[in-house]
Input
Amino acid sequence: VALSALVITVLGFAATLFQLARTRRAADAAANAVANAERRMARSYMLVLLPQLTRAESELDDAVAQGSQDGVVRGLSAWRWQAGQMRGFLATDEGDRTELLEAIQLSVTLASEAKSRVLNGGDLLKVTAQARAAISSVTGEAGTLTGQYLQIGEIGATGAV
Amino acid sequence: VPSNSELKRLIQGLIAASRSGRVPWGKASDGDAYIFAGTKAGVVVGSVDDDGRSPYFIRVFDNQGALVEEANTGLPDIDMNLAAAVSELYSLARDLGRNLTPLVNSILQDIGEEEPF
Output
């Protein structure tokens, strides 16, 4: 009887351990699924953000071409806001984004510097040249990054997860 | 009047790194200003009148492009040590930002002289 009880106890213990392992695997799988979904959702945001970045860039270029001091100041401020949005996205993204973060920092610093020179009456084309080049570089990189996400199927063409 | 120890610490660090060629200074405008941007902050140093002469300025921007600190060596009550440091940093940034330092190194190498850095 004692032997039977011991066998039953051992079998019960083994069954419990097996069930625990299954539960843990299921929990890990669920956690991975949630993490993947969050990453795909965040990366889908690039499909929304990219047109906003390029619009900010082209509105700034238009304002410079039209010689509109107010438009240039608005455009530079808008870029700083949009760049902040992208920085927020990059903070949640995996991988080393150091170069892109530096390019964004360069663009917002130059945008601020250009804004003060514009307000001091500088030539719009000249005083915004470096800032516009840096902005163009960031939008180009953002486009490349979005293209990479599309290519690896991280995001759909409709932005759907 | 900025006599901020953090600003001095930043400038000393930039001077040391610039001397060893580790700061990729670039042109910040069509005038006489030079920029270094990291991942979360940027620095601009230049001559106030865009003429390469004193007074000089330094501006520090945060990750939103907002100005958080600045110093101008032309202000009458500026800390003299800070003014000297800004002037020295300006000189280094100007040489590196105009790509003069690598050109000088290249020429010195060609004529068999040791590189300064």
In short: Residues 107 and 113 of chain B are 8 Å apart (CA to CA). The two ends of chain B are 34 Å apart (CA to CA). The longest strand of chain B covers residues 42-47.
